[in-house]
Here is the input.
Amino acid sequence: MADLTAFVELGFRHILAVGAADHIVFLLALAAIYRGPDWRRALWVISAFTVGHSVTLVLAVTDVLRVRTAVVEFLIPVTIVLTGIENLLLRQRATPGGSARHRPVFAGVFGLVHGAGFAEYLRNLFVERIAVPLVGFNLGIELGQIVVLVVAATLLRTVDGMIGLLPSRARLTEPFRIRMVAVSALVTIVATGWAVRRWPL
Here is the structure.
């Protein structure tokens, strides 16, 4: 039990660490098109992401799947860029969060890439048994993701409220759309910079 707790704590700290900023930004990109009433749809998307990275995490740490670290580190910001662009394409639709029914598949596929990133970190910690580290680390990752998403939802709602205080003439559309476009554009720009710097030679 002590070992499991240790790996849960390790996973939790890993997802919240400065070095995991790309994973946090990806979660922010996923969350950007949702608001309070959309929480069920958002939950499906995050669950799909969890399934995706869990599958790759298991395959990678058991050496069934091997991907060059440089390639994984490049692909992670690429997933953020694609998510940000997809968010911006959704801005023309009537109900952005509600119209993205393909989003769980989208998140699950990109979760496969992020799982490979987690695996590179975890693989070096194994001695013999892998079940406890895998389960514990993954639980810790999920707990960390929940914290990130709760904080992100609170911040996004606060931003919506602040934009809503502006005179209607100063904003040409509803606060949610302004925030969605702004956040999506920002994460796309940041992730593009990461992808350029991480280009695998």
Notes: The CA atoms of residues 138 and 161 lie 34 Å apart. The chain has one domain: 2-197. Confidence is low (pLDDT under 50) at residues 93-98. The chain is about 75% helix and 0% strand.
